[in-house]
Design a protein that fits this description.
This protein is an alpha/beta fold. The chain contains 2 helices and 7 strands; from the N terminus they run E-H-E-E-E-E-H-E-E. The longest helix has 13 residues.
């Protein structure tokens, strides 16, 4: 199951609050074409076939292919310097630590 770091959870909560999504809204991750990467969007609710991850005021909806691709991954947020030299935060996917 996809793991979510505390930093990523705070970023998701901030995004969904700023977007004024209704209760139950959240971040949706889709992999309609896994070769092209993942698509992140805000959604008012999960699609019927989504895997729903919830916890501490956040919802993440995983489209079925995304759920499969992310099964053993962790969602994090990392700093990134853009072309203008400004620091931004971006979601990043990495492997889960072995236990």
């Amino acid at each position: 199951m996809l793991a979510i770091t505390d930093t990523a959870a705070e970023a998701i909560k901030s995004l969904t609050t700023d977007a004024e999504l209704p209760d139950g809204g959240g971040l949706r991750i889709a992999a309609t074409d896994p070769e092209q990467g993942l698509e992140l969007s805000l959604a008012a609710q999960a699609d019927g076939s989504d895997t729903v991850l919830t916890g501490e005021g956040l919802n993440v909806f995983l489209e079925p292919m995304a759920a499969e691709v992310l099964e053993d991954k962790v969602l994090d947020v990392q700093p990134f310097t853009n072309d203008e030299g400004q620091e931004e935060l971006r979601f990043a996917i990495g492997p889960q630590a072995e236990s």
